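#lab-general

N.A. 3:47 PM
ok so I finally got the sequence cleaned up, no stray characters, all 233 residues accounted for. can someone with queue access submit it? mine expired

B.Y. 3:52 PM
send it over

N.A. 3:53 PM
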Amino acid sequence: MARGTWLRRLRPRLPRTRRGRRRALRLAVLVCSLALLPSAWLFATTDGQRIRTPADAPAAPVAVVFGAGLWDGEPSPYLAHRLDAAARLYHDGKVRALLVTGDNSVHGYNEPDAMRDYLTGRGVPADRIVADYAGFDTWDSCARAHDVFGVRRALLVSQDYHIRRALALCRAAGIDAWGVAVREPRDSIWLYGSLREVPGAAKAAFEAFFTPSARFPGPPETSLETALSGPDR
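B.Y. 4:20 PM
back already:
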């Protein structure tokens, strides 16, 4: 069969009748509505009053800083901005410890240690930084913060487009959480991150409702309790 014939067969056919077009329109509206339901869930379950800046964030025992990638072994610009905000929270006395959570699944790629080094270079004592090496995604980070590290109240540090998902998942994990939103220029990187939140919201809804724990729950650790037990500085 000629190539042109195959292409004509593969080409979608629009309904020819008015009734068919109405059905197609209803189907398109239904598909779009279902696709946006998870995003609507995020906004419905996260109070905007719980999203603050580093300047007006409330006090909490710990700040959870989510990984955002490394460039040549160093924090990416977006991750560096999260860490800068977390360091400010510590130095302003808003939190007494930092939990840095990220990916260390392959040899030579270690987000938590790079995050720790960055923070100590900005004056945060190493004994106030706890690393979670199995924070492979937002749900893993939230679930492990609660189940493994015993976090019950925390500030969450991430970019503004991601903070609602972090809030929804950490609250689903049992953490009384407040979001600290790091603002970025509305450039192509920000736009890409924002667009990723549409499928990210669907994944978050599935995890919150159907995934009871992180992929690697692990036994409870006392490292964060030890960091918090030190004298106030």
